Amino acid sequence: MKKLSLVLLGAGIGITASVSLHLYADKAATPPAKPGNVLPVAELQEFVQVYSRIKDVYVEPVEDKKLIREAINGMLTGLDPHSTYLDETGFKELTEDTKGEFGGLGLEVGMEDGLVRVTSPIDDTPAARAGIKAGDFIVKIDDTPVKGLTLDDAVKRMRGKPDTSITLTIFRKTETKPLVLTLKRAVIKVASVKSRLLEAGYGYVRLTQFKERSTEDVAKAIDSLYKENKAPLKGLVLDLRNDPGGLLTSAVGVSALFLPEKALVVYTDGRAQDSKFKYYASREFYAPRATLASGDPVKLAPKEVKDVPLVVLVNGGTASASEIVSGALQDHKRAVVVGTQTFGKGSVQTVLQLSPTTAIKLTTARYFTPNGRSIQAQGIKPDVEAEEATVSSAENNALRIREADLEHHLDNPNGAPADPATKPVDPAEASKAKDAAQETRKDYQLTQALNVLKVQQILLKK
Fold first, then answer.
1. How many helices (H) and strands (E) does the chain have?
2. Would you indicate the residue range of the signal peptide (predicted)?
3. How far is Cα 296 from Cα 292, in angstroms, rounded to an integer?
4. Residues 183, 204: one domain?
5. What pLDDT, on the 0 to 100 scale, is given for residue 24?
6. How does pLDDT run across 9-40, given as a tens digit for each residue?
7. 45, 220, 225, 328: which sits with the fewest CB atoms below 10 Å from its CB?
């Protein structure tokens, strides 16, 4: 017991030192330890006793490596819903996800009450085509109950070789019995940006996730809409519904497309000095590695986009980076936010590498909008409320799950369809316009966004 206690004490000191080095890697020297940062000997002794009992009397032999890793994971997941341990597989998958291509079903998920909760299905993936919705709970993967699995274990089971089948048992609050869905895995190539003309003069850009190239892709999409319209746009809809977030630099870049240069986009505040930072609509913040030769991705969009009337569409699946964009554009009075209250994920996760293949994802700060509003557990309240037409308000409130509903969440410190305006020139364009109009009519929130833009046009003329 004494030997084991000394080993664990040494391991604890080693882990603490390693985290400190990563937190202060950019500083000239590691700061001196604070007076209160002493290891709790009594609690460590209790930990050693539990460790010893498991090794001696658990029904099956358990490897030391597994026990230590599970202890680390439990220490992190007990803090908040977003802090976690990344083993070799998890660290690799995190890198793949931000690149925009990975294998699996196309789900953004989290863990709640021991079940996998769907944050958002990604557009044009097996999950979206199967009809899985934000707020669904996955209770069984093939024949394995999810209860008792870690989130990492559940994700590993859902991923696999392309074209292999998997059966998910889904609990949905509006259904009387579980849904059993069989899906076929695929290589998920996330096309994060889609765009089209809703009708003459009014553009639509859908951003499904903030990836490395999202700023460039949105800028190019807007440029294409201007060219297709053959005239400056009268209004633009930026659709961030069910966008679970992604890279902070891309959120700053997308905001910079519509804001004046050097406008404050978001700031972070945490205990460590490194976590106190302000992000502005300047290239060094959204394209830090860009060179003069590679150019500024924001400059790919027409300069008129800085002044075009803008509506941002949001809902309960709008989270993290997409809330940063919504909040920045709302605070600067650059856009009208339409839809329902957003998810409320306003915390910063920093990936701190422990070894070449493992890391921890640790919550280190909170996000604040330019006006000082904390997004955490509150989200962004739209300027114009517009519920989804497919469910009633009561059902929607019952289904909606936000950051504030998650266990261990951080507290907030601040305590009618339109007809096309012009007749298309040829039958092909007429058919395309008709399809776009029909798609808009099916989407009540999008129709409301278009109506808001048209009202803005009337007011501008007056």
1. 13, 19
2. none
3. 8
4. no
5. 25
6. 444 433 333 322 222 222 233 344 455 578 89
7. 45
**Tell me: the pLDDT tens digits for 247-304?**
999 999 999 999 999 999 999 999 999 899 999 999 999 988 765 556 899 999 999 9
Domain boundary, last residue among 133, 161, 189: 189
Q: For residue 113, give the 3-state DSSP assignment.
A: coil
Residue 115 shares a structural domain with residue 239:
no
152 in the same domain as 125 = yes
Which residue among the candidates 345, 347, 361, 454 is catalytic per the annotation? 345
Residue 431 pLDDT: 56
Indicate if 320 belongs to the active site.
Answer: yes
| Residue 176 belongs to domain spanning | 101-189
Asked whether residue 21 is assigned to any structural domain, the reply reads yes
Number of domains observed in the structure of the chain: 3
Q: Is 122 exposed, middle or buried (0-12, 13-18, 19+ CB in 10 A)?
A: buried
Residues 400, 416, single domain; the answer is: yes
Distance CA 72, CA 140 (A): 26
pLDDT tens figures, 38-86:
889 999 999 999 999 999 999 999 999 999 999 999 999 899 988 999 9
- The length of the chain, given as a count of residues: 462
Residue 312 has a CB neighbour count (10 Å cut-off) of 29
Contacts of 461 (CB under 8 A, 6+ apart): none
For residue 221, the number of C-alpha atoms closer than 13 Å in the C-beta half-sphere is 24
Of 123, 136, 239, 331, which one is the catalytic site residue? 331
Residues 114 and 207 in one domain: no
Q: Which helix (H) or strand (E) segment is 74 a member of? A: helix 64-77
Q: What is the pLDDT of residue 310?
A: 98
Q: Does the residue 68 lie in any domain?
A: yes
Residue 321 inside a domain? The answer is yes
Of 195, 320, 347, 374, the catalytic one is 320
Say yes or no: 365 and 239 in one domain: yes
Residue 94 forms part of a structural domain: no
Of residues 70, 65, 84, the one with CA closest to residue 151: 84
Domain boundary among 189, 212, 236: 189
- Locus of tokens 């997941």: 77
| Three-state SS at 446 | helix
What region does 100 belong to: left with phi over 0, alpha with psi -120 to 50, or beta? Answer: left
First-to-final CA distance of the chain = 82
